[in-house]
Amino acid sequence: MVEYSSEVIEKLLKGELPISEIQKMQMEPKDPDRFDKYIKALKQHVDWDDEILMRIHEHLYIIKKENNYVVKCSCGHEFGDYRENWKLKALIFVRDRNELEELYPEPLTPEWSELREFYCPNCATLLWTEALIPGYPINFDFLPDIKAFFQEWLNKTLENVPEFKDLSSEVTESWAKNE
Ligand SMILES: [Zn+2]
C-alpha cells in the first residue's frame, strides 16, 4: 500500500497529476483513510468551516450543517437541501443553436440542441454545462445515497441523514404555487 503526500493529493484535486500517475494510483491497493485525506485537502480550498461530506465538482460541495445536508459553493453560497437539484436555484444562460456555432463547428450542433450554462448567483462562477434538447427537463446529475456511502463504503455512521429521495419536483411545484 502506498501513502500519498498532501502535495500529490492537492495536484490530483487540481487536475495537475499526469495521467500515468493517476492510472498507477488506480491500480494500487488503497489506503484505508484515503477519504479523510481527500476531505482534509478539500478544506484547504474553502474559507468556511462547515463539515464537507463530499465534493460534487470543483466548486460545489455537499456539507452537513446542523441536521441539514446542503449543497454549498466554494464562495459560501448555499443552494439548499442536496436532494433538490441545485441547478434549479442557479443562474441559467441558454445558448441556442446559433450561439452554439460560435463554440462548436458543424456538424456538432444539430438543430435540436441547446447548451445550458449554470452560474452561482453569488460569485458568478460557471458551475456546470449541459447540452440537451430544447424543452428537456434540467438534468439532476448527482444525487448520492449519502447514508449508504458512509455506512457501506467508509464504515462510518452519519446522524440524522434525511430520506434518500429526489425532492426537485417539490421545488418546481412551489414555483407553480408561487411560494
Ligand atoms: Zn459561488
Structure in words:
This protein is an alpha+beta fold and 179 residues long. It folds into two domains: 1-45, no CATH class; 46-176, no CATH class. It is built from six helices and seven strands; from the N terminus they run H-H-H-E-E-E-E-E-H-E-E-H-H. It has helices at 6-14, 19-27, 34-43, 97-103, 146-153, 168-176, and strands at residues 51-57, 60-65, 68-73, 78-81, 91-95, 114-119, 126-132. The strands form two sheets. The protein has a four-stranded antiparallel beta sheet. It has a three-stranded antiparallel beta sheet with strand order 5-6-7. A hairpin with a 4-residue loop joins strand 3 (68-73) and strand 4. It is globular, with a radius of gyration of 19 Å. The termini are far apart. The mean pLDDT is 90. The structure holds zinc ion. Zinc ion is lined by residues 73, 75, 77, 120, 122-123, 125.
What labels describe this entry?
single chain; 179 residues; alpha+beta; 4-stranded antiparallel beta sheet; 3-stranded antiparallel beta sheet; 6 helices; 7 strands
Which residues sit in consecutive blocks of at least 5 with pLDDT less than 50? none
Quote the distance from N terminus to C terminus.
Answer: 54 Å
Largest sheet: 4 strands, antiparallel
Bound molecules: zinc ion
Order of helices and strands: HHHEEEEEHEEHH
Q: What does the average pLDDT come to?
A: 90
Q: Tell me the radius of gyration.
A: 19 Å
